[in-house]
Every structure is written in structure tokens, then in C-alpha cells.
């Protein structure tokens, strides 16, 4: 099987569904190693799930196989009780240069619509554990959309964000028009989507798209550090906090406040809420059990 897959790969990129099924069945069923991503656990307590996009020759273009592997890795981290936060990153040159244009080039409307093209990308935005995008280099099209599906975006100082789909005769299809507009406001989102122009890390920080900018070599360590800080808290309470913040994008203020109040009340059903407040009163560090 390995020789067969290798010879197919030599004939061209292993993007056909047959090759993907062969390689994925062989490589993913054991939980890795993967073909398009590197997966690890980082931090002193190995409590930060780490996914690195690994298609350097294609600037981490997000082919179907890559996104399927990402979904599998996220499922594994979600089920791993040691992991309290997840970092997604790319290379110094590219977080991801978008969905794979070569894979999309000959697709028909019928295939896209009938096959619900890209629906599995949503997995990134449905993970309960906090996800941090660490963006160096290009985050374009689907790459920018992938970063925006994460909960926190940190950028390296040479990062560039953009939605250049208009230059390809299409529009963003994985939340770009929606999440970008909510993050940076209408005028800048319109400008980026309608011109295809990119913004720098500094502009992204100024406009609220990213929360912090770091020198390139410090970006990933800082993202892992942030992940470790989050992972030290109660996982169940972090999930509630994430759910409440995300609700701000979906609900009216009154509905959002009501949901927040219910979730706040729900924290009183947990051992960790009791432990957190007891630890404060007893002037010691809380020892959360995720209960
Ligand atoms: C497939 C890609 C790719 C992509 C780059 N490559 N982006 N392959 N899909 N999105 C490949 C190139 O074909 C080339 O491989 C190699 O990566 C290096 O790219 P170059 O163009 O030679 O590098 P450079 O001149 O440095 O330019 C970098 C770049 C440019 C500015 C990022 O590659 C670029 O504009 N890429 C496309 C960006 C884009 O339009 N993204 C949106 C995609 S649509 P070969 O083997 O050919 O030399 C999208 C839709 C989202 O994301 C909808 C929902 C998900």
C-alpha cells in the first residue's frame, strides 16, 4: 500500500479522493502521523494541543485532505482530557494562502451545491475548547477565514491578512464576509473584500482583527503560553465563557445577557466554581478538577 501511494504521489499531488482515502485510511486511523498537518501537545504540562499546517510548497493551501485531517485532530484534542486549549499555526511564510485554488479550479456548481462543499470546515468554529490562531506570513482567503474561526488571533509582525477571492472571480465562502465585518467593521471589510487588498499585522491589530503582534520567532511560543494560561483554568468553565462570548455575535443584547446569566448561574452547579471561590477566601491557588 505504501509503495502504491508513493508512486501515485510521484505522478502528481495526492489530491484525488482515491489517493486521499488510501493515505488517510492508512495514516489517520491511528491518530497520526498526518499527511498535511503536524500534530503535537505543547506546554510544560503538555496541555496545549498544537496543529501546524504542513504544505510548505503550496503555502499551506487548504486542500480538502488538510481540512479533513484538521477535523480529525480537533476531534482528538476535544476528547483529550489533558488538553485545555489548542493552537493552530502555519509556517513563517504562510499561515495559509487560502483554499486550494488548483483543487477548486474545475469544480462545478452542481458539485459544490450538491456536495455541500466546505461544510466540514465548520468544525474549527464548533470546538468547545479555546482555539488560538498564531499567524505568520500570508493569511489569505480561506486562510484568513480559518484564523477568524479561531477564538484568539495572534500575529507575527510580517503577517498579512486578506480576502482576495474577488481577484479569482468569486467571494469568500467560509465566513469571510461575516466574521471580518464583525471584527473590523463595514468600511474596512468592504474595502478588503471588494479590492482584494491585504492589511498588515499592525493594521489588523489596530482594527481589532488580532489581539497581539509579536516578532516572528516569538509568535508560536507566545501563543502556546496563552494556551497554557487558559488550560490552567477549569475546562468546563472556559467552555461556558467561550459559549457566552460567541453568543454576542448571534443574539440581541437582551438575549445575550439572558444566556450569559444562565451560564453564570450554571457555574454554581460545578465543583470548580466552589473551588475557585474557596481558594480565593483561603488565600491559595485554585486546584480545578474540570468538574
Ligand atoms: C493552491 C497555491 C495557493 C492556493 C499559493 N499556491 N496559493 N496553490 N491554492 N490558494 C501555490 C502556488 O501555486 C505555488 O505553487 C506556490 O504555492 C507558491 O506560490 P507563489 O505564487 O509562487 O508565491 P509568491 O509569488 O510568493 O506569492 C504568494 C501569494 C500567491 C501572494 C500568497 O501565491 C497568491 O496570491 N496565492 C493565492 C492567494 C489567494 O487567492 N487565496 C484565496 C484562495 S480562494 P506552484 O507549484 O504553482 O509553483 C479561497 C476561497 C475561500 O480561499 C472560500 C472558502 C474557503
TrEMBL record:
Q: Does the keyword Thylakoid apply?
A: no
- Pathway, per Swiss-Prot/TrEMBL? Lipid metabolism; fatty acid beta-oxidation
InterPro entries from the entry?
ClpP/crotonase-like_dom_sf, Enoyl-CoA_hyd/isom_CS, Enoyl-CoA_hydra/iso, Enoyl-CoA_hydra_C
Compartment(s):
Mitochondrion matrix
Record keywords, A-Z: Acetylation, Fatty acid metabolism, Isomerase, Lipid metabolism, Lyase, Mitochondrion, Transit peptide
| GO BP | fatty acid beta-oxidation
Q: Which GO terms describe its molecular function?
A: delta(3)-delta(2)-enoyl-CoA isomerase activity; enoyl-CoA hydratase activity
Q: Which CDD domains match?
A: crotonase-like (cd06558)
Predominantly, its location class is: mitochondrion
Cell membrane as a keyword of this entry, yes or no, is no
Q: Which GO terms describe its cellular component?
A: mitochondrial matrix
Listed Gene3D superfamilies: 2-enoyl-CoA Hydratase, Chain A, domain 1 (3.90.226.10), Lyase 2-enoyl-coa Hydratase, Chain A, domain 2 (1.10.12.10)
What's the short name of a Pfam family annotated to this entry? Answer: ECH_1
EC numbers for this chain:
4.2.1.17, 5.3.3.8
Q: What does the record give as the reaction this protein catalyses?
A: (3S)-hydroxydecanoyl-CoA = (2E)-decenoyl-CoA + H2O; (3S)-3-hydroxybutanoyl-CoA = (2E)-butenoyl-CoA + H2O; 2-methylpropenoyl-CoA + H2O = (S)-3-hydroxyisobutanoyl-CoA; a (3S)-3-hydroxyacyl-CoA = a (2E)-enoyl-CoA + H2O
Question: Its quaternary structure?
Answer: Homohexamer; dimer of trimers.
Q: Which PANTHER family match?
A: ENOYL-COA HYDRATASE, MITOCHONDRIAL, ENOYL-COA HYDRATASE-RELATED
Concerning its family, UniProt says: Belongs to the enoyl-CoA hydratase/isomerase family.
What is the protein's name according to its record?
A: Enoyl-CoA hydratase, mitochondrial
From what organism does this protein derive? Answer: Scleropages formosus
Q: Upper lineage ranks?
A: Eukaryota, Metazoa, Chordata, Craniata, Vertebrata
Amino acid at each position: 500500500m505504501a509503495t502504491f501511494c508513493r508512486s501515485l504521489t510521484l505522478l502528481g499531488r495526492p489530491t484525488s479522493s482515491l489517493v486521499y482515502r488510501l493515505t488517510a485510511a492508512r495514516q489517520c486511523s491511528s491518530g497520526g502521523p498526518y499527511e498535511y498537518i503536524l500534530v503535537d501537545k505543547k506546554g510544560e504540562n503538555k496541555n496545549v494541543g498544537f496543529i501546524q499546517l504542513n504544505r510548505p510548497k503550496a503555502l499551506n493551501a487548504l486542500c480538502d485532505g488538510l481540512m479533513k485531517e484538521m477535523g480529525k485532530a480537533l476531534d482528538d484534542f476535544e476528547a483529550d482530557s489533558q488538553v485545555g486549549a489548542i493552537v493552530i499555526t502555519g509556517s513563517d511564510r504562510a499561515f495559509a494562502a487560502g483554499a486550494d485554488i488548483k483543487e477548486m479550479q474545475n469544480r462545478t456548481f452542481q458539485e459544490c451545491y450538491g456536495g455541500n462543499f466546505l461544510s466540514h470546515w465548520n468544525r474549527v468554529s464548533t470546538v468547545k475548547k479555546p482555539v488560538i490562531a498564531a499567524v505568520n506570513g500570508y493569511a489569505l482567503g480561506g486562510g484568513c477565514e480559518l484564523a477568524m474561526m479561531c477564538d484568539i488571533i495572534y500575529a507575527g509582525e510580517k503577517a498579512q491578512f486578506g480576502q482576495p477571492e474577488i481577484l479569482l472571480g468569486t467571494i469568500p465562502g467560509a465566513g469571510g464576509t461575516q466574521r471580518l465585518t464583525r471584527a473590523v467593521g463595514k468600511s474596512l471589510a468592504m474595502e478588503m473584500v471588494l479590492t482584494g487588498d491585504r492589511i498588515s499585522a499592525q493594521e489588523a491589530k489596530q482594527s481589532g482583527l488580532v489581539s497581539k503582534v509579536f516578532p516572528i520567532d516569538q509568535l508560536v511560543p507566545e501563543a502556546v503560553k496563552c494556551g497554557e494560561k487558559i488550560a490552567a483554568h477549569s475546562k468546563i468553565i472556559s467552555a461556558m465563557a467561550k459559549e457566552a462570548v460567541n453568543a454576542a455575535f448571534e443574539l440581541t443584547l437582551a438575549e445575550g445577557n439572558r444566556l450569559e446569566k444562565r451560564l453564570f448561574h450554571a457555574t454554581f452547579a460545578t465543583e470548580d466554581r466552589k473551588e475557585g471561590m474557596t481558594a480565593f477566601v483561603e488565600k491559595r491557588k485554585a486546584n480545578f478538577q474540570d468538574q
